[in-house]
Amino acid sequence: MEKFFRLKENNTNIRTEIIAGITTFMTMAYILAVNPAILSNVPGMPKEALFTATALASLIATLAMALLANLPFAIAPGMGMNAFFTFSVCIGMKKPFSFALTAVLIEGLIFLVLSAFNVREGIVRAIPDNLKKAISVGIGLFIAFIGFQNSGIIVNNDATLVALGKVTSGSALLAIIGILATGVLLALRIKGALLVGIIVTTLIGVPMGITVPFGGWAGWGPVSAPAPIGDIFFKFDFSSIWSFQFLVVLLSFFFVDVFDTVGTFVGVAMRAGMVKPDGTIVNMKRGFIADACGTIAGAVFGTSAATTYVESAAGVEEGGRTGLTSLTVAVLFGVALFLSPFFLLVPAAATAPALILVGFFMMKPVLEMDFTDYAEAIPAFLCLIVMPLTYSIAEGLAFGLISFVVLMIATGRMKEVPVSTYVVGLFFLAKFLV
Q1: Could you tell me the CA-to-CA distances from 274 to 71, 80, 163, 351 in Å, in that order?
Q2: How far apart are CA 210 and CA 231, in angstroms?
Q3: Could you report the per-residue pLDDT of 181-230, keeping only the tens digit for each?
Q4: Phi and psi for 319 in degrees, rounded to 5?
Q5: Where are the beta strands (DSSP E) in 16-114?
Q6: Its pTM surpasses 0.85
Q7: What's the gap between Cα 70 and its chain centre?
Q8: Extended strands (E) in 274-319
Q9: Within 273-347, where are the H helices?
Q10: Whose CA is closest to 193, among 206, 204, 179, 203?
Q11: Angle at 14 between CA 8 and CA 15, to 5 degrees
């Protein structure tokens, strides 16, 4: 393990990496329940088969990240993309799921080619330094907002969009207890504080009636064989790939996935100290290839596009710096195939404190941002504030980069902007047009 993952070189050890991997998995294990719940709204896609497909796609993609790129990032079917797959393509456009899976497959193949020819690396280089720091801060706000929302501390309000939930009982109260308990552990410098906090909060949830032991689908025991995926495995339909509708769906998947991944890579890598002086990320090309393989695996197994998860920041915060962290996540996805009710018993309120506190940790780059140059500072601010408000890393990056290009041109500083930045800006404009 030392030789393959270069642990000493990355100032880490086996124990730290495994704890980091468990922490990452626990903060993103909700996808095992949420992804099947969303995609099962599509006719012909059974929930049990989707659970197996989600776990298998996540396992293979994250394993590729571990062994190919040696990065502590985990991959799973992306939130947002599964909703677009279900409600926009299959239900809204009344297309069969084979149509959408074909778009995901071709998108993944395009990603693979773009990654092999360093196109996605070029996108990262095109992002200004101030904007890269803003991405990290924006992801921090975004991931904290996810935690607040998942726990019920923040709820929907038709008048003000969001409002404070009922924090004196239920999941919201449990999450607040978890935040304070985990905060104490962090203040005392307890190793593995985030993971310990998740476990402690889960146990506290038992007498509160929030943690329900082995509360998976009806009739499932703690151990069960994976459900078969024959209904959704390798179900492609290439008969419509030259149609305009297919092109629109393909481009929609493409823009959201590529820029979400780029934003996540930059934000989490910056927090992990993996950004080189030239602005690139350690093993970035291999990481993007692994991410593309995840999208392809998702399509083959019968689920929506996979992407690198912002929850990887939780493992990074626990000290994860190598592929051993992501290997641990991959192994746990494999175990989840047989112990699904065990993993699903961890309530969202128990993982929310970890997400919220990771959001706090990711705010640090704001101290290094230049707020004196308004042409750079305003786009950076737009980037970091739009991410949580639109629930999208890609949208925040789009607002930041487009406004940067416009302000630099308007102030007569267009020569300071690399050609690649103009090109990426045009791609973002195309994204909005699509």
Answers
A1: 9, 27, 37, 26
A2: 34
A3: 999 998 998 877 888 888 899 999 999 989 877 544 444 455 677 889 99
A4: 110, 0
A5: 75-77
A6: no
A7: 18
A8: 306-308
A9: 284-301, 312-317, 323-336, 340-344
A10: 179
A11: 125
